[in-house]
Amino acid sequence: MPEPLVLVETQERISVVTLNRPQALNALSTGLRGAISDTFNRLRNDPETEVIILTGAGRAFTVGLDLKELGGEIPPDAQHASTDLAAALAAMPQPVIGAVNGFAITGGFELALMCDFLIASTEARFADTHGRVGVVPGWGLSQRLPRLIGANRAKELSLTGNYLDAPTAYAWGLVNRVVAPEALLPTCLQLARDILSTEPVTRGEIKRLIDAGWNSTLAEGLRLEDEASKAHSRREVRPEKVAARRAAIQDRGRDQSRK
Prior knowledge:
Helix content: 40-55%
Number of helices: 11
Shape: globular
Low-confidence stretches: none
Radius of gyration: 17 Å
Largest sheet: 6 strands, mixed
Order of helices and strands: EEHEEHHEEHEEHHHEHEHHH
Distance between the termini: 39 Å
């Protein structure tokens, strides 16, 4: 029997959600996207879950969309009614802590940005390679990233596709803390317990208000991004183009991650 694509462990009102395609660096295949959406949709109404920690198995948080699947080199690994990660995470009333253990690239970077805040391992690496793949962001990166680190830094990352290491991500305000790999989950669990120590109704209202304030200036940008992403996909995204670019992107990523 195959391993589940998403692992969930719930103890003491904290659910640790682990993306579980380590052999593919947790690339977001159709099946994995669907499993993430299904998991968060279920946890949203789970009375035993008050805080969620999202992480990845192996060397990556997630390297983003599965380019082999997107490029038509392999068939989709599953069919799901919904793979809308952005909608699933946006609907969460519970705080979601992103525990970034390794690579968080492009769609994986976007998934990290959907979390309420991020704690990074010293092994974490962030990159936005949308411009290299030839796909316009569709999960909010072009709007969220500049609000977190400033427009100039966001442009540097998104227009070059260069990698960002954990210490720089901390200095730029992208992540709250950088800890040793073995301390990543313990640190996130302690923060989750700190959150649980607050009054539940008040906690939920504070999170709602912060999110509402964020979205009051973010919403129009997200609408424009969504329109641009869909229009660009219709015009420009072809399987053969993605397949041709995949090897070059992977080689560049390996070179930059060694630095």
